[in-house]
Amino acid sequence: MNATIKDVAREAKVSIATVSRVLNNSAVVTDETKQRVLDAIKKTGYKPNALARSLKIQKTHTIGLIVPDISSPFYPEVVRGIEDIASMYSYNIFLCNTDQKEDKEMNYIEILSEKQVDGIIYMGDIIRDSVKQQLHDVGIPIVLAGTEDAEFEFPNVNIDNKKASYDAVKYLISLGHKKIGMISGPSDDPIGGVQRTSGYKEALSEAKIRFKSSLVVEGNFKARQAYLAMLKLLENNVDAVFAASDEMAAAAINAIFDSGFSVPEDIHVIGFDNTYLSYMFRPTITTIQRPAYDIGAVSMRLMTKLLAKEPIDDMHVVLPHQLIVRESTGYGEEKK
Amino acid sequence: MNATIKDVAREAKVSIATVSRVLNNSAVVTDETKQRVLDAIKKTGYKPNALARSLKIQKTHTIGLIVPDISSPFYPEVVRGIEDIASMYSYNIFLCNTDQKEDKEMNYIEILSEKQVDGIIYMGDIIRDSVKQQLHDVGIPIVLAGTEDAEFEFPNVNIDNKKASYDAVKYLISLGHKKIGMISGPSDDPIGGVQRTSGYKEALSEAKIRFKSSLVVEGNFKARQAYLAMLKLLENNVDAVFAASDEMAAAAINAIFDSGFSVPEDIHVIGFDNTYLSYMFRPTITTIQRPAYDIGAVSMRLMTKLLAKEPIDDMHVVLPHQLIVRESTGYGEEKK
DNA sequence: CCACCTCAAGTTATCGTTTTCTCATACCTT
DNA sequence: AAGGTATGAGAAAACGATAACTTGAGGTGG
């Protein structure tokens, strides 16, 4: 069907080696032969077969992306950042949605490995030991985008989650709040759980506010648990709440209203992630924004360096986040 | 590095052919030898090299996705739909962002072809002749997702855009409007321009409302032009407007307010696509929703059929759309 | 008892490249 | 003039699989 290097060789009356040489500029070929080959290529409409090439050179110029769900907020931007840089360095990307399920993750990593990807960029909140092990076993560069493993074994690009929640809580303190509650992520989530909670603690301690464990209730990033969590916090008369996700913040606000209080008049609320929920919800929700595109772009750039075996200054890049102030902390009456 | 079929063969003391046979169940192998091979595979940690396999069998089980921008609304859902079905049929997908630029599209199609993808799913509002030609030339199955070419040369999955805008305008008519303006897509866009305009005309003519060309202003799906377009329409005293995109609808609403009128009190507005803008904006915008996930899923299913050379009942699938009624046409005070 | 068939398993060509050798020619050098 | 060294280009061996052919041992029938 498609012309192969052989056809070109025959057409140009040279050996396939010579064709390969002009294709890759891998050795000197006289201008005259080169021209003959070029003509033959044009005439035959020859397109090199990347499969054969990759098989031989043991590089596919392809990298795999493990994503929880491309259709959920945050990830499309990250992926776009990745792909932009990838294309800049002529890499292609395999997109794999896993819903953060262990079996899907394991399965995709295996497939990517069989397809000989040059590297894998992993995204997801929690990175299980089994997955970690398998990522190691593949024996190719791995970059974690927008996440990190507990031991920092893998290169990664992320924001400083502790600092981010520190900033959020500090802002609440700056507004004069003393009884600040938190609806955290699961305690077994090293980032959304542990880190964000520790940022909360730090902000308190810096402001010499005593930490009370009754003011931190564990959530799972989802609405239902957060609603109940907020009810508990209300019993403790909090005057502000920091939730580790926008969805939980929204649920908390609902709980507050349902209990007869109001946001931002009685209680201030801050969420996390700047999802559309945070500006769609009324009142709009003050939140922390992660630089999604940049996380992707920087991750991929890091990957290219790893692939080129370039020296790397920092295997763990921390990108700046941003506090976006909205109605839920009393700012910005959205005007019609 | 990685064990190859040879290593397995040596370990199991059989020929590589036998290993291949148990791998693919392509011929009978005695249980005893089979077991030996299986053991050897486990022992060596052998993973078949998909590249080598693909080179030989001339199939990669990979398909390419041409997308304008994965980080813009609509596409993430479509892609998720595609990937779900792809993974169900054990296909992997290459994601390519083109920003709908001709050179990027051409370039990606070439690369995908070199990487020997089994098929390409194309997304994008406009499909240029050059691109069309190149898609043909690759000689593999092509499916257009959420779009279509003028001549219906390629299999595709889409909604009925004419019907969709017909429905939108008909709804406006049902609300008692007579002077209905339209901010269309570019006239060289066969779908967002031509089709949606023709649906508008049809709804009018069905209601015996005379079409006036002054009531249709061409936009480019973006805010700026739409804002100006709306100002023009206001000069013509329209009492309702149908815009071919949510962004244009939002801009139109801004123009209306800035001119001292109000939505929905004075003028009703309908957008297109049900992007987050349509529910984030105040007033929330009545709009047409395209079933993004389904468009993706059905496109990929169609692709699998094409690849399997199954008989296909319909090369051109039309999926149902939906009118989502919100504040901009006077319905649904969003309650706190 | 031998020709023939069956069936498991081995040999080998092939997919389309890259790359290492080789080799022939031409050009220096002394 | 003889020997050494560039230099351009061909031959052939990979890369790691699949699959078409062989092979050879054992079973069957006339």
UniProtKB/TrEMBL annotation, chains A, B:
CDD domains: HTH_LacI. The keyword Membrane does not apply. Residues 3-57 form the HTH lacI-type domain. PROSITE patterns: HTH_LACI_1 (PS00356), HTH_LACI_2 (PS50932). This is LacI family transcriptional regulator. Keywords: DNA-binding, Transcription, Transcription regulation. The keyword Zinc does not apply. SUPFAM superfamilies: lambda repressor-like DNA-binding domains (SSF47413), Periplasmic binding protein-like I (SSF53822).
